[in-house]
Specification:
Elements lengths: L6 E8 L3 H10 L11 E9 L3 H11 L7 E3 L8 E4 L3 H13 L3 E4 L7 H14 L3 E3 L7 H12 L5 E9 L22 H5 L1 H12 L11 E8 L6 E11 L4 E9 L7 E7 L2 E6 L7 E7 L5 E8 L8 H12 L10 H18 L13
Parallel strand pairs: 1-2, 1-4, 2-3, 4-5, 5-6, 7-10
Antiparallel strand pairs: 7-11, 8-9, 9-10, 11-12, 12-13, 13-14
The protein binds NADPH dihydro-nicotinamide-adenine-dinucleotide phosphate (NDP) and the ligand O=C1OC[C@@H](O)[C@H](O)[C@H]1O.
NADPH dihydro-nicotinamide-adenine-dinucleotide phosphate binds next to helix 1 and helix 3.
Length: 365
Amino acid sequence: MAEITPVTFRWGIISTGKIAEAFVKDLLVDPKTRDVHDVVHKVASVGSRSVEKAQEFIDRVAGGDKSIKGFGSYEEDVDAIYIGTPHTYHYTNALDAIKAGKNVLCEKPVTCNAAELRSLIAAAKEHNVFFMEALWTRFQPLSLEVKRIAEEGSLGQPVLLHADLSGNFGIHNIPLTHRILDPTLGGGALLDLGPYPLFWAILALYENPANNLTAPTNISASMLNTPITPVDSSTIFNLTFSTSKLAAQASLSCSITLNALETGVTIRFERGNILISSPIYCPKKFKVQYIGENGSITKEETRIFEYVGGGWHFQADEVARCVRDNKKESALWGHDKSLLEMTVFDEVRRQGGYKFPDGVEKVLA
Ligand SMILES: NC(=O)C1=CN([C@@H]2O[C@H](COP(=O)(O)OP(=O)(O)OC[C@H]3O[C@@H](n4cnc5c(N)ncnc54)[C@H](OP(=O)(O)O)[C@@H]3O)[C@@H](O)[C@H]2O)C=CC1
Ligand SMILES: O=C1OC[C@@H](O)[C@H](O)[C@H]1O
């Protein structure tokens, strides 16, 4: 077989925080370890509020690679910019990058509200650039296989989906300025953890061909605040999908004070179940149960997925391929799904009474 010459994709990184480090480490993993031969990734520059921090990040995470430029600002000459700042900075950082004609991969939640996202989508169209939320779980091989099995027919239609993402942040022992507690940084469970339970509902229900990409017909929600700051410590939200061909519901929750459950997602179909192990943002294992005529389990299969790296590189491969092919959005996690996410979150916050402090939302509906 002829050797493919891979495209070298140059990334500019904005932020020197926790997730930026995880993403950059994955960019440095040899793509061949995950059987990817058409793209390779190169970290070209790191932007921070401080040039010293940027250099310290390059030394620590990328072995001091002299070809990587460190900037005390966010201007870079690259194929795409990855944004890993706190939620409430995504809009401004992404807009600046888009206006500079850059392709953008922006961390989840892509913005604080749907109005900000609509404004970014319009800007991306105007400047003819690729734009995607970094909903990394969508691109992992396990998710692709869950989707294939869910839609292949032998389980029947999905009826009920339960998904929870909890993570104990030790909220009594972290500063009030921590991004998870600070309302000016969009703190709380919903915006930080909520994208993942919602992602599984989008994959299994919204994307189900019988739903024909129809938005939920009902959203009901309740939020519980922390005793410390006015952000949600836990939130529950339910979605109903009802079309002529699909009648299904999702019961979703997230918490910043509890540990994760062993099984984070359960998708119940007419003739079986899919049970996905935690962590639900990069699960390595799921189980499929087939149910017979009398309601008992007739067959059970466990599937395990392993790869080198943390799982963030799959979304990087998607961005590189989309940009190479001149696509402006991903077919797997396009603008419509991020917009659905932000619309659901706006409604959950409305019902739950979570208002951001004045000035946090840069665009209002
Ligand atoms: N996909 C995933 O698995 C994960 C995604 N995330 C998402 O990534 C984003 C960042 O999270 P995380 O990396 O944990 O956050 P961190 O606090 O670790 O890092 C955020 C970085 O943003 C920069 N920054 C710019 N302005 C501010 C500000 N006013 N306050 C604090 N930091 C600022 C800082 O870099 P500098 O000082 O260099 O400018 C800082 O290091 C969030 O939106 C979160 O939802 C988080 C964890 C996992
Ligand atoms: O995206 C995320 O996934 C893992 C969580 O621990 C983190 O807080 C969140 O931002």
